[in-house]
Structure formats: C-alpha cells, structure tokens
Amino acid sequence: MFLAWRALDLRGTGGGLGDSVKTNSWERYRRRRAVITMLCSLQVKATLLVVGMTLCVTGGVATYLLDTTRKASRNEQDVQLINAASLLAKSVERSMLEDDLPALEDLVDAAANGSPLQYVVITDPGGRRVAQASNGKGKVSSVLNLPAEGRLPVPGRPAYVTAVDASRVLLDVTYPVTHRSDDGDMELLGYVRTGVIGDVWNQSLSSRLDILVGVGLVAMVLAIPLGFLLIRQIISPLDGLADLMRRFSRGGLDVRAPVRRSDEIGRLSNAFNYMADQHQQTHDRLVRLNAELEDRVAFRTHQLRELASREPLTGLYNRRHFSEVVERSFAEANRYQSDLSCIMIDLDEFKSANDEFGHQVGDELLILVAQTIKAQLRTADVAARYGGDEFIVLLPQTDGDRAAVLAERIVEQFAVDLQEGYPGVKVGMSVGLASLHAVDVDSADALMRAADRALYQAKAAGKNRIVVANESTSTSAS
Fold first, then answer.
1. Can you give the pLDDT at residue 204?
2. What is the model's pLDDT at position 472?
3. How does DSSP assign 197-210, residue by residue?
C-alpha cells in the first residue's frame, strides 16, 4: 500500500487518492501501534500473570488431589478385597477342616454370586483347586486363566491380572485359610483366591477427575475477567498518575494527584505531590530571582549608560551623548515640522579667574554653571558640557523667542548665584542661540554651528551677551 501511494505521488497523478491512501495507511499504523501498546501494557502482562498463576495453582492442586484420590481409591479397594478374602477364609475354615466338600461348594457359590467378587477359588496348601465359582454361575476358566495346580501368588498382596477376554483388568488376591489347634499351633488348610474388576476405582477416579477439570475450567474462566478487573483497579490509578506526570513535564506545574488511598499507590501520589510542590516552589523562586536579576541588570545598565553619557565634574551629559540626542531631536523636528533651538554658552574671563583663584574655584564655577542651567530646564531639555568652560543646551519644540527668554534667565540667575557664592570673582556669560525655523540648516551639526557662530559674535561684540543667529542685534544680559 505504501509503495502504491509512493508510485502515485511520484507520477504526479491521483494526488487526492494518494493523500487518502496515505491517511488510511497512517490510521492503520496508528491502530496497529495502539494494539501493540495495549498488548505490551502492564495491565495485560499482569492479567496474564494472574491467569497463569491461577492455572498453575489449579493444575497443581488438581494433580495433587487426583494422585491422592487415586492412591486412596486403590488402597480402599485393596483393603476391601483383602477383608472379603479374610471373611471367606474364616467362613470356609470349618468346611475345609472337616473336608465337607458340598458345604464348601455352597459357600463358594454364595460368595461368588450377588457380590462384586468375580470369582472365588479354594485350593489346598499345594495349590490344587478344591472348589470354585464365578459370578453368574459361569466357569472360573471363562473369567481367569487359573492353573489346576501350581504356584500361587503371594498371599495377602493384591495384584492386577488380565481377564480371559482381555477386556478387563482384575484385581486378584490370595488369602491363607488357617486353623489354630488346641495346643496353639497354626495349621495351614489352604488358600482362598478371589478377585474384583480392577477398573472400578478408575471409573470413580474418572468421575472425580471430571469434577476437578470442570472446577479448573470454571476457575480459569472466572480468573480472566476477575484478574483483568483486579489489575485494572491497580493500573488505572497508575495510568492517571502517569498522565499527571506527563502534563507536569510539559509545563503544567499546578497539576496534583488526588490522594484517596493509603496503600503504595497513595504513597506514590503523595510523593509526586510533594515533588511537584518542591519543584513549583523552586520554579517560582527562580522566576522571582530571575525577575529581580533582570531588574538589577536593567538598573545597572541604565546607571552605566548614565555614567558613560555624563561628564563627571558637572553631572551634565558629555559631548558624545549630546551629539546622539541632537541627531534624534533634529530628525523628529523635521518629521513633525516642529521647532528646535540650540543654545551655546561660554564663560567670559574664566581663564583669568582660574589663574587668580586656582583650579579648585574654577571647578566650582563650572559646577555652579551646570546647576544654574539644570535649574532652568524642562524635563525634555538636554544640557551638556561641550568642552572646557563651554556648555550647550538643546530645547525640543521651542522657538527662538522662548529660547532667548530661557537664555536670559540662565544668565541672570548665574549672575545672582555668582555674586552670592563668589563675590570677588568677575565671570560673565556669552550666549549664542539658533532655532531651526530661524536659520536655514539641513543637519543637526549645521544647527550647532549656527549657534556657535552666534556665540562668537557675542564674544566679538564685547562678551556677556546673547546673540540669536541671523539677527543683527544682540540682547545684553542684565
């Protein structure tokens, strides 16, 4: 079937039929695998084990009972035959002692007729037959080949012999006829030989065997469904537990086994639940630790980025970071047609103050400038130390007029702070300002260069001034 499907598929014809054949083949394979899985399952194996053990036990018990019954039946028949021969020996003792042949023959005929005895033979001590009779008035020779005279079997020991017609097996026994004299001597008068059908006990045993076989078959028939149901009661919880473990291994950490038993399966369910609880607690702890670690990494990463992007003395952003920000802000301003302003600030007479009052005061002046600038900015504004005593401020969505007002506030506030903190230091600010809508630029660098040119114009015009790019006038700082 698979080769036929492959042939159709390779020829490119009968695609629908090929898909159907493939589906049917897969269904047959799946059913075959299911049957094989079922036959190899623990339930089937345990059921076969229970049935096999039942059959073995039943067979062993039946064999033992059969052998015991056979021996018991054989012993019972031997005892009965010996007892019958013993009674006959006592009955014919007086007749043999008195040589009363007619009475002896009457006793023999009476014993052989109407009883299970098949024949009765009386012999003298030498083995010569004195009287004989068979069941049904027939001759003894028609029942058993007996010599007229000769050696007799061992007295008192039953033995099996074959009948004349070979259709029956006879159980034969010879019993001595004795007489105790007045002086206590035991005199042997002769022997009584008799026999019964030997397979009578076999017939009884056969009926008992039929009963045992019937009981064994009933036990086997009952053992199969009962064993299956019994094993099912054991396997079903294990199947459920295996399914829970499968779901647990696939990520269902909240699955738990219901515990309704106190046996080994109940203990196994408790162990699984304990393991699942421990695993889930460990998993939750790892998830929590992982989240905390990610938060810490994100926080540390942010800190490192902040440290890498800020200037250590003033805490403002450095030039590299400012260049990245101004590029993004310039692109956004062009996309949304919004304004963008850039302010360049340079300290006047900073070198002289640094030489006069020392580098420590110079650093403090730079820090004061940074604090003054940050105090006047919005959250979206960005300030950076551009180099030395030069600072730069970027104002998104801010036109030139509002940027000029902000620059004036920075200059005024710095003058106040400088007077309060360093009254003997004479340092001013020169400011250059450029706005995207006020100057014709095509890049962020061009906007910064325009602000830088305005700064140099302020320096050239006498310092301590604010110059707006493309404007001929400058505003003096108060």
1. 62
2. 45
3. ETTHHHHHHHHHHH
CA separation for the pair 375, 385 (Å, rounded):
15
User: 95 and 189, same structural domain?
Assistant: yes
Q: What is the DSSP letter of 390?
A: E
Q: Do 123 and 11 lie in a common domain?
A: no
CB-based burial label for 31 (10 Å; 0-12, 13-18, 19+): exposed
Determine, yes or no, domain membership for 399.
yes
Q: Is residue 402 part of a domain?
A: yes
Q: Which residues constitute the domain of residue 348?
A: 310-476
Task: Tell me, yes or no, whether 319 and 290 share the same domain.
Answer: no
Which parts of the chain have pLDDT scores under 70? 1-22, 37-47, 114-115, 136-152, 163-167, 199-209, 212, 471-478
Count of Cβ atoms closer than 10 Å to residue 368 Cβ: 19
Say whether both 376 and 455 belong to one domain.
yes
Contacts of residue 268, defined as CB under 8 A and 6 or more positions apart, other chains included, come to: 241
For residue 418, what are its two tokens? 């400088």
Are residues 452 and 317 part of one domain?
Answer: yes
| Burial per residue of 253-270, b for 16 or more beta-carbon CB atoms within 10 angstroms, e otherwise | eebebeeeeeeebeebbe
CB 394 within 8 A of CB 382: yes
Q: Are 475 and 466 in contact (CB under 8 A)?
A: yes
CA distances from 253 to 193, 237, 455 (A): 91, 20, 67
Last residue of a domain, one of 171, 204, 237: 204
Helix, coil or strand: residue 173 = strand
Strand extents, DSSP E, 65-205: 119-123, 129-134, 159-162, 169-180, 186-197
Residue 7 lies in a domain: yes
Query: What span, in angstroms and rounded, lies between the C-alpha atoms of 239 and 242?
Result: 5
CA atoms within 13 A on the CB side of 115: 21
61 assigned to some structural domain = no
**Strands 428-435 vs 465-468: parallel, antiparallel or unpaired:** parallel
Are 189 and 294 within one domain? no
**Each residue of 51-108: pLDDT tens digit?**
777 778 777 777 777 777 777 777 877 887 788 888 888 888 888 888 888 888 888 8
Please name the amino acid found at residue 165: D
Q: How far apart are CA 319 and CA 445, in angstroms?
A: 12
Q: Is the domain of 314 the same as that of 297?
A: no
Cβ proximity of 73 and 204 under 8 Å: yes
In the chain, how many domains are there? 4
Q: Is 349 left (phi over 0), alpha (psi -120 to 50) or beta?
A: left
Give the pLDDT of residue 156.
74
